[in-house]
Amino acid sequence: MAKRSLQASAEGIRKAKQAFKRKGWTQEYLAAEVGLETRQAIWKFFTGQRIDRHVFNDICFALELDIAEIAQSFTTDESGLLDSPANLSLDIETVVHKLRSVYHKNIQMQCGTVQILDVAQTIQFHDIYVDVEILEEINSRRWLEIKKFPQVWIKENNCLGVVDWPQTRTSGIAAVKKYDKLMVLGKPGIGKTTFLQAIANSCNLGLLYPDYLPIFLRLKDFAEDIRGSSQISLFNYLCESFLNLGISEQELNTVFTHGRALILLDGLDEVLEKDVNKIINKIRQITEKFCKNKIIITCRLGIQNYKFYGFTEVEIGNFSQPQIANFAEKWFLAIAKQTPALAKELASRFMQKLELKENLPILDLASTPLLLNFICLVFQFNEDFPNNRAEIYKQILDLLLTRWDEAKGVKRDEIYPNFSLLHKIKLLSHLAAITFPQSSYFQPQSHLCQLITDYLLQNFNPTHDAAALEIESAFVLQAIEAQHGLLMQKALGIYAFSHFSLQQYFTAKEIVTNLNSQTLAALMKHLNKKYWREVFLLSAGMLNPADELLKSMKEKIDNLSRKNSKIHHFLIWLMQKSAAVKTSYHVASVRAFYFTLDLPPESALACNQELAILLDNQLAGNLATDLALDLALTHGLTVSLGINPDIFLPRFSALSLSLDLKHLLANQPELLTALQNLKNQLPSPSQGGEVLKIWWQDNGKNWTESLRNWMITNRKVGHNWQFNSQDLEEIQQYWDANQLLLDCLKTATDVSPQLRNYLETSLFLPGKSDD
After folding, report:
1. Which of 302, 413, 614, 636 counts the highest number of beta carbons within 10 A?
2. Helix or strand (DSSP H, E) at 400
3. Which of 6, 9, 15 minimizes the C-alpha distance to 84?
């Protein structure tokens, strides 16, 4: 394409010289200001000679001049295209309509489809997009003390989560309508690019700002295309692409001058550090020169602190559970190619599985759209999540650390000299393993920087100046946040892992890498801490073999059983009772059944048969006679213990029904007769409520004790163990530890057959006495 140029008119030269004099600059300074190596073009400008139009525009911008007042009117170049920057006599509505029509296909090509990672085919944008929600207060900009933060908390279902700081959310479209200039920030994979695509598509289809020209540009492409050519402005660059469509610079400049462009600049974080200042300057120039236009820029959190004048900064929030469900349904329909009905059913099943307590760490990850796509992919084949989640975390780290940037063709600056991918993982594991046992999800920046400094000293140059490394450690921390989003600034000077589940994974990875008797002993101190559960499961899944970990857990559990004499006696009874029952059930499942059956009603575990069924699902069907009889009797005793004046009559009727056990005692006539005699001591309900209440007040306690004694004598159940609140808490810990051991056995892929059999059959057995 022929080179085009501009020259100043006589009046334009006069105005330019006046502006130049007011600035007090030299020609050399002006040349440097517009990115020229020599002042030759400056001299030509002031002498009225033709110069490259890009340089002409930049000089006028630097001198704060209106190009239309400086350039000779309607000059033409060799191509015959008008070089006048803007013609305000053109009808703006006609020009916008023309440019929208011509550029429609380009926007459709850029933004109408998306390429999903690990999915072969392209997907129509509207088939997968879920509206994002915007936080109008940037989390990392708040001045807060750590003690003000909501801390890690234990949910009712005994799984950990992290309380989000309460934030007002608004829809992305609402934010775009509210602010003309937006800087949209967010962590990696949160949906910044797709949000810009959604805005471009909506404008292109006339759903949003139908009288504006949408322009979508990846800043990485812009930086690469103008590298080595500092004279090209962002407007000049956009003109080149429009000229190829037969749109003149004059027409585009007319749209920009009237403020009728919707300029969408994506991925400031993807620009290399050596180019970023130049690109920021180019953006600043166009935003100041054409300030009437609507402009949105996206960038990762933690990249840079430069603020564009007049821009409102917002942050894209994590997906809420309704957004996750919406995305999943779209995913199963558009990507898994299911029918609408089946996609809806799969999405419902997906959410049900995610909300199970054992899968809440995965739900934590699913709040990031990039990771949610991967999680849907995992779920697609088996309609479930694998027991061993270590592989899921490994793939997610691979995605965040390398594959996501590779898929987009983005190259990041080096974090630290010779700082390899392995070093990143080792550093993150080191940080997690130190901070996780402190039970604090949030960490001061100074503490993390000190830990990074220690790591750099140990792994790179032990003789390096520690003070210099402290400064460099801050850059390392910022780079990890900006490049991979694995550590995030939650408020000024306060950091945390982007997902609590990833902190758990890195902690487990550090344990597995450095496993020995000392690390095992230290790990066992956390066996009864609920927020360590995932660390144990991940460690079991990663270890090859996992025998030493599992044996240490069993030893710790046995120690728990010996610590409290009442609990130890309870477990001895449990062993004896379970052994006396003749069934084909798994031996440990029978012990689990009677463990919860004989606990007092105030225990949270009382009659909880989930684990027993998990050990042997036959227990979910018709129970063997002995177990069914003991369950019915225990229910009757519980009803009797719970009778009070407020709910007397319903409970009394339930008690009478619960002791009607002819079908279970048909082969034991003596027991049936004895139980019937005990039941006959109860007054008939026909005697009326007041008579029954008086009888119960006088005789209820003794009758209940008679029932308990009969159960203990004849069935060895119904004991009053006289557990206090501390005992019940330790019983819960013992139960949870056994369940964790069983779950670790299910997760571990490398366990010797002999050890697996021993552990499965020895659950809930009392530890051998030290005597």
Report:
1. 636
2. none
3. 6
